[in-house]
Write a structure and sequence with these properties.
86% helix; 0% strand
Amino acid sequence: MKEVHFIKKSQETWKMLEELLAKPGKKNPDQLSELYIRLMDDLSYARTYFPDSKTTQYLNGLSAALHQEIYRNKREKSNRIWEFWKTELPLIIRKYHPIIGLSFAVFFIAFAIGWISSENDQEFVRLILGDQYVNLTEENINKGKPMDVYGQITEGPMFLYITFNNIYVSFLFYVLGISFGIGTLWRLFSTGIMVGSFLNFFYQKKLFADAMLAIWMHGTIEISVAIIAGAAGLVLAQGIVFPGTYSRIESMKQGAKDGLKIVIGLVPCFIIAGFIESFLTRHYNVSPVISASVIVLSFTFIITYFGVYPIILEQQINRRLQKKLQKEELVLKKYRLQISGILWLGGGIFFVFYSFLSIRQVIWITWPVLLYGIIQLIRYVQISKTIENQFEEIHHAENG
């Protein structure tokens, strides 16, 4: 069967499942189970005949979302908070990896513009950062303490101010997504220009190494998660602008919910970044090795948790779903064997006893066995009806 026919045949089921997952509250377990069987069958077929297509990627994502729904409902009572950061947030991050990539691309393009503009116009940095900040930094450079701006406030108050300010900015990135993403993109762009011009300012002062050690001690986490917060705003915007198979209201609700979960999940990262900036960055020049180690560890954390781990988690879930599908197929084979054996046994008993007993005696002796076979047949039909119907449709489509 061609892929276009496969999509046309099954897209109503996929749309029904998307709408069910988008609805808040407890789901109908029978409906969820039936759609799950259909989805697993479609996913298995797509992996066999269209392994590299976007349809297979879409079904993988839909199966991960379904598994997330089932898994979250099952574990919610005991350790909901832990499961959020362990499973739910990484799967959401994985779902929106392309949008996160777009957010990083916008930032780095703006960063390059800020760097090049400052390189060609020394007054550009004053336009971006303000005269007061630039004059203060130049005074610190003349004193031999170029990064003294990080040591002018005591650690505790600085930690509280920076942390709450960064969290506020991240939620602002998210809320601006309501402007169809324009406000979020503008904030990302302006932040990238600011960071680019700021680093170029120190580069021109021959203090680039000091700036890299000081700024990126906390900036590796702080700037990275700020960009991801920008992606949360773009997720909200996508729900409004590109509803896909959802209604626009349902799509906006889903985008708003996923984006909000992303920015909430970033709060611990902002706390860590605020702690590093307040307590460690001011001592960046004590040991360059320690400073570099903090940067490397921070970079490793960002790449692992927001990049690699979500991919691995999705692959693990898909493997578990595939195993579950295989188990269900084995159960169906088991029922087939049981039914076949019982019917043959019942028929054999009937014909053997028919030679010696009356028809009433034969029925009386064999009816328990036949009744058990009928019960097993009903169970088999309930489990396999959907899959068998789809196999029949595929057969007719291929021969048609």
